[in-house]
UniProtKB/TrEMBL annotation, chain A:
It is a peripheral membrane protein. Its main location: membrane. GO terms for cellular component: late endosome membrane; lysosomal membrane. This is Vacuolar protein sorting-associated protein 33B. It comes from the Eukaryota. GO terms for biological process: protein transport; vesicle-mediated transport. Belongs to the STXBP/unc-18/SEC1 family. Keywords: Protein transport, Transport.
Automatic annotation (TrEMBL), chain B:
It comes from Collichthys lucidus. One of its GO terms (biological process) is endosomal transport. Residues 5-416 form the Vps16 N-terminal domain. It is found in: Late endosome membrane; Lysosome membrane. Pfam families: Vps16_C, Vps16_N. Its main location: membrane. This is Vacuolar protein sorting-associated protein 16 homolog.
């Protein structure tokens, strides 16, 4: 297989189940603060994470009578004690106020308790006060910051982090991120080195330092050596690309929610949908999750053959052998069989969608954009994409990708593409465009900018071009972007003329069919190699700075525990994709590291863009 | 050392000693005569009011405050009304009870703190006598008024005045009275001459001390012990009755043979006292009267003041101060002449040892034979604690240390702690500090309180030294002292803000537990706002700075500090505060300079106060956002007219923002809405709110081609888009004839392959074939393949001599197409040759 471990000395990962236990114990403690039978209302997007921490029977043990989803409708509960487990959102708090006030008006006496997770905000309490029920409710905080999704993935499950922080400029979650880091530090630290890039990363780092200084210091054996913090807005290109690694594809097509995916009837080849946990416990999945999709079928069929051979052993067995076979092997085989057929089903379903002409052309366009090649054709493709109304999100994704890779669109294209998009999907997307512009995802080229870029780059390029092509060079120079410069500096786009064997990946580019090394992961690789940002000054300038590298408090004994030094925690503020995780796993195997990915949420192109939509559909 | 007993006087079984504490540092011209004097227990300060009754305004009486050793702390002329009584509270504040019933409270340094009144009724009747007393509830004041009524306040910090019931038949000043605290109640015991009464909250009870001889006469002086357990009564015939303060038990009755009542009478006891006694003072005589009917008499020359202590009586005269106490048992054991107690032997053994005499060994053996060495060491250590003279302390401790060497499993803790405590006590007993505490008092008082008292007296360096020496954790020790020091420092009016801030910063540094914001708050209290701001700058936690800054009305600064802290809750708190404090314009201006706060507030407004949001954008002239706001608002409107008017506002704002594109798009939307409305009204098409594309789709689906055409022209829909749309729509409705007509209307901008594909999608191969011929040569192969016409595809590919296209066709061929495969292969081979 492609990923035969290249280095055998990868260190062991720390055990993160402790985080779950901590969260569960704290929740139980909070529930017991409201003794007696109570009905529990849970915010919709907390349902899945909660399920991973404490199941229904655990809740029932602690006198939770009925469970409801928060639906912003009048409650039908008959219990005289209501407990609300919510995110600190003003709308939800307002709804609770309405519930309480309605009870008051009806002369009903109830006890209310609000558990905010991961923390409460003053604004929420202000709403309680404004609505006149501050005295009627008790509030608590459930510091449920970190949910381990897998052995090496921990999620804060805060998708709104992205929009709040990067679009609205609301920094309320920074402290949450800091606290999460603090918790990891106190359980698995002390960290010996912290690197980071991005404004939010820096603030999260500072918030964490503050909390370290306030709290008492405990020294114990470090289990995590280094930390890398990165803002999502440092690299928007990677999450906007189509994912072609199995796990990423499954996420793009079926949407993995909290480490769990629901396969529809077309996958399960029955008439029912099925929920499947996707993590390293699933032996089949674990072997294909990081594979380029083109390899997956071959692997699965090999696996199927092996399975058949294992089944075939039955033939010619005597009774005794049969007995041991049934008791020892059969169950495992059955299980594997079941998983195998599921993943084959999923792959077939993906194949149906993704091997069509359209998808190939889509990928070709993406790769052209990344390379900065045949941009005109790409624009026509996008135009047609919009005109034919293939997909609202996909079109938007291509527009953004075009804009970032080209450092903005030419005014003419910018207008015409936007106008066509509005005709297709409604004028309310004006607001979406305003959002995208604010984030720099979809912008118009500034006339002044092109000049300066040209001045700085012209020297180098003229040598390469013959005089006859100079005019071409100028027109393409006008479109030189930061992404291009970065791509050249960091060698993000491998030369296209070489054949890239996806079975034996040679670098992280394999996650995008060899067309592009994800910027975020490349930065991590470079900084780890250089133990800091020296030599990357030009790169950080292009990324608008805010980089830092700080040695931790205990530098002295770091050498003795070299294993921990090779465990690296990467924290994505604003979300990360499965492709990036796959790339980091690859890097880890290459260099003998183990990466732990902490993210505010798992994201992909659709989630990223949906967070920025402002239409009213 | 033998002469230690020289100052001892036997009283019954016990001994009493009088040891000098200080030569007083003060110089008082007229001695203590004609002065009101109050000295606080536990070595507290002394307050002195000269000639309190002189009333001429030209020469006001002088109020002086001294430390216990007579070092002047402050002195100022008394400007208020005549004072009846002075007294000290448990926290070293001076109470001055005035004739009119008001009580003025001063701190140790003579600055006025506050005052309270003992009731309106007193103003007229005046205070005849007052007493300040201490109880577990704090410091209390009791007065008797001109109408011979008593009023009590048990705790002046939680003032509740209680007027006690009338005493029957009391027609003049009671001859004497005391305040008792018993059974969690405060009572007054008074003598009217022949009668004794106990006054409590509700009743007045006549009482009779048990065993008081009838011929003893009436009580003219009384005194209660430090612990309120014992009572002493002095009668006009010179009899002294002592007993329990419950008046249920008699200890003794002594005939002092004095007919005048003493000027002062104070109990002299100690915990585990063998022989409690009462000290009585007349003009020239001091008498110690014990329970055993014995007395000791000392002549005195000067007027003195007696101060009752936990374990003795301090005698303050104008020249010196002495401590009169019962000699502790352990000291008796060691120092009594010819004592054979183990401690005494050990002391002797050590003395011989120092002389290098072998007698040391003999003494040691003697102790060891009785296996009393441990006891001997213990005695020496304990006795050292009780001794005031440092030489005696040393020799006792050396002896203990010597004895300890011969013991194997003896805990060193008591020895070590006694050494340390004595060092601290000797330091505070220094005349310059003037806290003459005994070890017993120190233990009762606790180290914490001692440090507090030192801090209160502003002996900061000493307090810090003690904290460091005793290794008190910084939080309770050094930091606490520094905090007080800094709070005091900021009040120094003669220093500049700059100098104080620097001094504080240098000393305090970043000691744990000292909060700069706390110090700054103190500075602000003293009216030094600038200093407070300077000090706040040293505060590391920005969050801590915010509340004070708000209090000082530095809201801008508070906001930026809150933003700096990164705590959005704090930012929000300030924003809410500002919102209520400022007028709207200023508020918005302030926010404008703080993007973080602004975006936070915007978020809030988006959810809570849409209107404010509009104002906010208006204020900023942020036309772009304002326009976006109108667009958002338009979607909340149900009625078309209001929706259009909102959109018109959006257009205006977009124009102001020079966003022509958005303005145009919005105008188009308005046009579209009107168009949709018209059609909805006419045809009931249900178009309102659809996008342009969806509208055209709907129109085509309804067969309203003309209207669709109109939109296509009006909105300059790209040809390609329109062709795609129409193509799909016609195919879906299977209007093949119409489609053919459409295809011929002009040259297709999307080519004809699209026609083929769309037809095939609708499973109409027949129609699809019609368009294959029109496809451009490059797409021919694709077109033929689309309708699964392999032959045609092969022909086209061969004709174009395109190898890869031939390959594509080949890959689609199945085994049955042998002929075709051969043909293709041949063609490919020939193409490859060229």
């Amino acid at each position: 297989m492609a990923h035969s471990a290249r280095r055998k000395d990868c260190p062991e990962l720390p055990d993160f189940s402790l985080l779950k236990r901590l969260a569960r114990d704290q929740l139980i403690y909070l529930l017991e603060q409201l003794p007696g039978k109570k009905d529990l209302f849970i915010e919709a997007d907390l349902m899945s994470p909660l399920d991973r921490i404490a199941n229904v029977s655990t809740l029932k043990q602690h006198e939770v009578h009925k469970l409801y989803k928060v639906e912003h409708k009048p409650v039908v509960s008959t219990s005289d004690q209501l407990c609300f487990l919510i995110r600190p959102r003003i709308q939800t708090v307002k709804w609770i106020c309405d519930v309480a006030n309605a009870d008051k008006a009806a002369g009903k006496f109830r006890r209310y308790k609000i558990i905010f997770t991961p923390q409460k905000f003053y604004a929420c309490e202000a709403v309680l006060e404004e609505q006149g029920i501050f005295g009627d409710v008790t509030t608590d905080e459930w510091a449920f910051n970190l949910l381990p999704l897998d052995d090496d993935i921990i999620s804060l499950e805060l998708p709104e982090f992205f929009r709040d922080n990067f679009l609205a400029g609301d920094q309320r979650w920074v402290r949450t991120a800091g606290s999460a880091l603090h918790l990891l530090h106190s359980l698995y630290g002390p960290f010996s080195k912290i690197y980071g890039i991005g404004r939010c990363s820096k603030m999260a780092y500072e918030s964490w330092r503050e909390q370290v200084e306030e709290g008492e210091q405990r020294t114990h054996q470090a289990e995590i050596g280094k930390v890398f913090l990165i803002d999502r807005d440092v690299d928007f290109v990677t999450p906007l690309c189509s994912q072609v690694v199995y796990e990423g594809l499954v996420d793009d097509i079926f949407r993995i929610k909290c480490g769990c995916v629901e396969f529809g009837p077309e996958v399960t080849s029955s008439d029912k949908s099925m929920k499947v946990m996707l993590n390293s416990q699933d032996k089949v999945f674990n072997e294909i999750r990081n594979e380029h999709f083109s390899n997956v079928f071959g692997f699965l069929s090999q696996k199927a053959r092996n399975l058949q051979t294992a089944y075939d052993k039955r033939r010619g067995m005597d009774i005794k052998q049969m007995k041991t076979f049934v008791s020892e092997e059969l169950k495992g085989l059955k299980q594997e069989h079941r998983l195998l057929s599921l993943h084959i089903g999923a792959s077939e379903s993906i194949m149906k969608k993704k091997t069509k002409q359209d998808f190939q052309e889509l990928l070709k366009t993406e790769h052209s954009l990344l390379e900065g090649f045949e941009i005109r054709e790409c624009i026509s493709f996008i135009e047609e994409h919009i005109n034919r109304q293939v997909s609202m999100i996909e079109s938007l994704r291509l527009l953004c990708l075009l804009s970032i890779t080209e450092n903005g669109l030419l005014p003419k294209d910018f207008r015409s593409l936007k106008a066509q998009y509005l005709q297709s999907y409604g004028v309310d997307h004006l607001l979406t465009f305003a959002n995208l512009r604010q984030l720099g995802l979809l912008v118009e080229q500034q006339p002044g900018e092109t000049l300066t870029v040209m001045e700085s780059k012209v020297g180098k390029l003229v040598n390469d071009k013959t005089a006859g092509k100079l005019t071409d060079a100028f027109s393409s120079l006008a479109k030189k972007s930061n992404f291009r410069a970065l791509s050249r500096k960091l060698n993000l786009v491998p030369k296209s003329d070489e054949e890239y064997d996806l079975r034996v990946p040679r670098d992280m580019a394999y996650i995008f069919s060899g067309a592009y090394v994800p910027l975020s992961c490349k930065l991590i690789e470079q900084v780890l190699d250089r133990d800091g940002w020296t030599g990357l000054e030009e790169v950080t300038r292009l990324l608008n700075g805010h980089e830092f590298a700080v040695s931790g408090s205990t530098g002295g004994d770091s050498k003795t525990k070299s294993d921990a030094q090779r465990i690296i925690l990467v924290m994505f503020l604003g979300g990360c994709t499965f492709s990036e995780i796959s790339a980091l796993r690859f890097l880890g195997r290459e260099r003998g590291y183990k990466f732990i990915v902490v993210t505010t949420a798992i994201t992909n192109s659709s989630r990223l863009l949906e967070a920025l939509l402002d239409n009213h559909a | 050392m033998a002469f230690i007993t020289a100052t001892w006087n036997p009283l019954g079984e016990a001994f009493y000693r009088k040891s000098e504490l200080y030569e007083m540092c003060w110089s008082i011209r007229d001695g203590l005569r004609d002065s009101l004097v109050a000295a606080a227990p536990y070595g507290g300060p002394i307050a002195l009011l000269r000639e309190p009754h002189r009333r001429s305004p030209s020469s006001r009486p002088q109020l002086e405050i001294y430390s216990a050793s007579g070092v002047s702390i402050t002195s100022f002329p008394w400007k208020s009304g005549p004072v009846v009584q002075l007294g000290w509270t448990v926290s070293d504040e001076l109470l001055c009870v005035q004739e009119d019933g008001s009580v003025l409270i001063y701190d140790l340094f003579g600055s006025f703190k506050r005052h309270f009144s003992m009731g309106q009724e007193v103003v007229q009747n005046q205070v005849l006598e007052a007493k300040v007393f201490h109880s577990p509830y704090g410091t209390g004041v009791a007065i008797v008024t001109g109408s011979f009524r008593f009023t009590l306040a048990t705790n002046i910090d939680d003032l509740k005045l209680r007027r006690l019931p009338e005493v029957p038949g009391l027609q003049g000043k009671p001859s004497c009275w005391v305040v008792l605290t018993q059974d969690r109640q405060t009572k007054v015991l008074l003598s009217t001459g022949p009668e004794l009464y106990i006054l409590d909250n509700t009743s007045c009870t006549a009482v009779c001390p048990p065993g008081l001889s009838p011929q003893a006469g009436s009580v003219v002086h009384m005194s209660v012990s430090f612990s309120y357990k014992y009572l002493a009564l002095f009668t006009d015939t010179g009899h002294l009755w002592t007993g329990s303060s419950h008046l249920q038990e008699k200890l003794s009755e002594v005939d002092t043979k004095k007919s005048t009542p003493p000027k002062q009478m104070v109990w002299c006891r100690r915990p585990k006292s063998q022989q409690p006694s009462v000290v009585l003072m007349w003009d020239k005589l001091l008498m110690v009267a014990g329970v055993c009917n014995d007395t000791i008499q000392f002549p005195i020359e000067d007027p003195c003041v007696l101060v009752g202590e936990l374990d003795g009586v301090r005698i303050i005269s104008s020249t010196n101060q002495e401590l009169l106490q019962e000699v502790p048992l352990v000291c008796q054991d060691i120092f009594k002449i010819a004592s054979m107690a183990p401690g005494a032997l050990l002391l002797e053994a050590h003395r011989e040892y120092e002389k290098s005499s072998q007698k040391a060994d003999e003494y040691l053996r003697e102790i060891k034979e009785q296996s009393m060495l441990g006891e001997a060491v213990r005695q020496c250590v304990e006795a050292a604690g009780h001794e005031y003279d440092t030489n005696t302390q040393k020799s006792l401790l050396r002896a203990a240390s010597f004895g300890k060497c011969f013991l194997t499993d003896f805990s060193p803790d008591p020895f070590v702690s006694t050494c340390r405590e004595l060092r601290v006590l000797n330091a505070v007993r220094e005349s310059s500090v003037g806290l003459p505490l005994t070890h017993t008092q120190f233990k009762q008082m606790t180290l914490q309180v001692l440090i507090d008292r030192l801090v209160y007296r502003q002996f900061y360096p000493l307090a810090i030294e003690i904290c460091r020496y005793l290794k008190i954790p910084d939080y309770q020790g050094v930091s606490r002292v520094l905090k007080h020091w800094a709070s005091c420092k900021v009040q120094q009016k003669d220093l500049s803000d700059e100098a104080i801030a620097r001094a504080v910063c240098v000393k305090v540094g970043d000691s744990p537990g000292v909060s700069y914001s706390h110090i700054a708050a103190k500075a602000y209290e003293c009216g030094r706002t600038e200093l407070a701001i300077k000090l706040l700058d040293f505060e590391a936690r920005s969050g801590e700075q915010v509340p004070l800054l708000l209090k000082m009305k530095r809201s801008q600064l508070a906001l930026s500090k809150a933003v700096e802290s990164g705590d959005t809750d704090l930012v929000y708190t300030v924003v809410t505060y500002l919102k209520n404090e400022m007028n709207r314009g200023d508020f918005f201006m302030t926010l404008r300079n703080q993007p973080v706060a602004l975006s936070l507030y915007r978020q809030f407004c988006k959810l809570q106060e849409q209107e404010t949001l509009k104002d906010l954008y208006n204020q900023d002239d942020d036309h772009q956002e304002l326009a976006n706001y109108y667009v958002t608002a338009s979607y909340r409107e149900k009625r078309l007219e209001s929706r259009l008017s909102l959109l018109q506002s959006a257009v205006d704002e977009y124009n102001k923002a020079k966003n022509e594109f958005a303005a145009k798009a919005t105008e188009d939307e308005m046009r579209l809405l009107r168009f949709q409305r018209k059609l909805d009204d006419e045809k009931g098409a249900g178009l309102l709110g659809l996008s342009l594309q969806a509208t055209m789709e709907a129109l085509l689906a309804l067969g309203l081609h003309k209207q669709a055409e109109q939109l296509y022209r009006d909105f300059r829909v790209p040809d390609k888009r329109y062709w795609w749309l129409k193509l799909k729509s016609l195919a879906e409705k299977e209007e093949w004839e119409e489609l053919e007509k459409f295809s011929k209307s002009k040259k297709s901008p999307i080519g004809y392959l699209a026609f083929v594909e769309v037809c095939m999608k609708c499973n109409n191969k027949y129609e699809a074939k019609k368009y294959v011929s029109k496809v451009t040569p490059e797409q021919k192969v694709k077109a033929h393949l689309a309708i699964s016409d392999l032959e045609g595809a092969a022909d086209a590919a061969i004709e174009r001599k395109n190898e890869s296209e031939m390959g594509v066709v080949l890959s689609r061929c199945s085994v049955s197409d042998r002929l075709l495969i051969d043909r293709l292969n041949r063609a490919r081979a020939s193409a490859a040759k060229k």
